[in-house]
Amino acid sequence: MKIRGGALLARALQKKGVDQVFTLSGGFCNPALEGFMQCEIPVINSPHEQVAGHLADGFTRINRNPAVCLVGPEGFANAIPAMMEAWGERSPVIFVTGSSTLKRQGSGGFKEINDVAIADPLTKHSIQITHGERIPEFVDRAWKIATSGYPGPVHISLPVDIMFSSFEVDVQSDERPFNKFPRLSGKAWPNPDDLNAVLNIIGKAERPIFIGGHGVWWSRAEKKLEEAGLKMGIPIFNIPYHQKLLGEEAEAYMGLADIHQYHPSKDAIHQSDVVIMIGARLDNQMNFGNPPLFPESTTLICINGSHEELEMNRAADLALLSDPGAFLDALLGLHTAEKWELDRAWFDLNRAKRGEWVKKMVDDIPSLEETGGKIHPLRLSLAVQDAMGDDDWLVIDGGNTHFWSEIAINIAGYHGQKLGNILHPGTFSMLGVGVSFGIAAKLTHPKSNVVVISGDGAFLSGGLSIEAAFQENLPIVVVIDNNGGLDCISQQQERMFANGTHFATDFRDIPFHTMFEGLGGYGELVTKQEDIAPAVQRAIASGKTACVNVKTKGYISPIVLATTSKRDKASIE
Description:
The protein is of the alpha/beta class. It is 40% helix and 16% strand.
């Protein structure tokens, strides 16, 4: 029995456990699509290749199991932004390109581009399949690379002549590995001497803090992190933009390790004697490990599960190669063995400071009189959460919309608000991912309500993906923070431009809610603050993909204010 190369690819991916594919159907990929159909692997056809990539990324982040984004050669170019977003979050998406013919490569073939070279800096592994009978081998290698150490996206280019050619169905069955099904990925186990050196320092700490990053999520160690923080009295902070690790209502969670969005984190870092940074990078958000963010008096320890990530953290005082889960088990062993003597004073101090911050942030929200009757974005996000339940998913997307929503999530969490989970853009702060992530959340949790808070600019960047929600009957609610422009950018311009104005950032008054109605959904315009939560509840109750279009007034967020503190400074660095 012979099957096409595309079907052979589909079978190899099925054996690895792939259970969801996203695409924009194209002729170059038809054999693979036939293969996925024969394997009964669901395929969602998206309105754009970038949307397909963001859907695969969102699905992968939630399940922590690779999904596939399948595109043609010209579609590959459209999918690059999604590849970059997945790369920033170490999301092991498998990008597959049905590429130009291998037989005449380099001679100007139909839609020929060097997709392997383009994808290389945005993936852990980018490779072209050069022989159809080696398809299972290429898939096996790509899968292992995507899921090992700190995971990350990979790219496989399958030339169209191999895609359409026929091969024996059992090719490479007589070669190792005979078992083609997924195996547990290898994890770094700490060297005992290095581990003991780190534990000795932490064991003597009087004011330690955790800063958790994406490595904790991908190692599935977030519960262990919470247990260590709670049992051992160590306050936990989260790297900005990275996957949420703990619910904001968790007692051990304090807030973002961002001195602008969560001011008490500055005091915690400056007063700490040991910072345990686990599964995260000393990048621009962490001032590359340098003062003034991390004072010289603090011992900075980085725990990373791969050599690549550890090398990024050269500035650390101590660096330990270890899977985050293995390290946390060892750390918790100090508590179990009654070798942990830290009292609760430091933990309680950080809890108290969080409470003071919450009160101040709420007290400082401008009144409706001060905003001219328009809704402040912080009040918008708080009101949306008032309408949500414990199992509901919240997705945030935008510039200031994102930043104010992060603050609102911490405030609501401190007051006991529980959510199923939270998704947001990653390291690159890419606009337009929110709706796709919301659809992915609904696809994976169909019984939960999913609400997306999106800036108007973010929706215009990626809102076309809403068609997939209608097409696949995955009703989500999109709340538009409609302030009439790219508010985050205009505020920077007003503080940077010599004439104090903004330029090329305004939108017209867009009736987003009627757009949803025209597509067959539910839409509602909100102009009063007290109407937000009821409108969101009505949108959820409609059972349709819905839009709540909220007229707001743009207010500069603390982080944007910080980035514009100097006239010629427009970035966080």
